[in-house]
Design goal:
- The chain is an all-alpha fold.
- Among the domains are: about 140 residues, no CATH class; about 70 residues, no CATH class.
- The protein has 18 helices and no strands.
- The longest helix is centred in the C-terminal third of the chain and has 29 residues.
Length: about 425
Amino acid sequence: MEGYDDADRERYVVEPPKRVAAPERTPFERDRARVVHAAASRRLAAKTQVVGPQSDDFVRNRLTHSLEVAQVARDLARALGCDPDLTETAALAHDLGHPPFGHNGERVLAGLAAESGGFEGNAQTLRILTRLEAKTFSDGGVSAGLNLTRATLDACTKYPWPRSAATPPTGTHADGSPRVVVKFGVYDDDLPVFEWVRPADAGRRQCVEAQVMDLADDVAYSVHDIEDGVVAGRVDLSRLDRAAVWETVRSWYLPDLTDAALDSVLDDLVAIEGWPTAPYDRSRRSTAALKNLTSDLIGRFCGAVQEATFASGPGPFVRYRADLVVPEATAVEIGVLKGIAAHYVMQADDRVAVMVRQRELLAELVTALAHGGADHLERPFADDWRAAEDDAARMRVVIDQVASLTDASALAWHERLVRQGRLPRG
């Protein structure tokens, strides 16, 4: 595809030709297939998005969220002239590093790994793609993970800097947990592959495909959290308590906007044909109307970004030759929708109580495994433990193991190893 060169298609470890005949595919199509078939992708089906996947048959989990982000990213990439397979792969992979219980679990692991390089979901994604997920090995017997192309790995890099260059966290995650984890995209012991991926002069800039992935994630969060909240009976779009919602919007996302400004933004959204004028009643007609509103909002946001980006210059809109342009009005509309979901869903007392227990459970499990050693780890992580040179490296192995677990398996491991007394709590 135009705009991508041999360096963009290069892999960290050179791979021999396929041993069996296979349909001809581009390197970026191969990348997409590798992520789709990865075990880490399957585990996303049992990891928390906003509420636990076991709590409701309808609610989104990390996998369904990733699929929806991928669809939004692919459509926008195609419109802009980015390679759609490359951009979709970045979207499919963007949450692979999330631990059990989402950002709530990330907060626990970051604290426990503070002396071992920290923990961050995006840095963990890079670690999975380039080390932990079994697919390719170097001639020296070192795992190269899925061995994706340079451009695809770059597109997966949401925060292109190490922990030492991270800025203090502020605000709140879209799942409602406070941002207490510094955002970064690579652990120190993964810097060699990161430096291979990144252009020397890129600095902290994302490639445009990563910007598309990032926007698609934001759009999906803002729209689909509202949809889930409506279906769950927590959000009634026909009767919003604006004063209360605006307090949440300002404290979480848009601190500088007045009530009048936020009222004007919501008035524009309410004016969209299909915005509900009556409570959701679970009928097929009401459900269809809600799905159509979801589609219209996604089209509204992506259309505005596409128009603004094309107006910014001639392109091509690939790699580092351009930047995505998100109009301020679009960013504010996305923030308002996030604030509505935050007020009615994320701050619910029942959810907050569950999150406290999740943090306690995960901390107990990590501490127990750190004392228990290799015998209680899965084989790949047990091998890593035995090869680790010091306590910090062994704690990193435990963090890798626990981060790989689903919500349900974290609960089961805790029950088996901690509650039943097979390992001490620490």
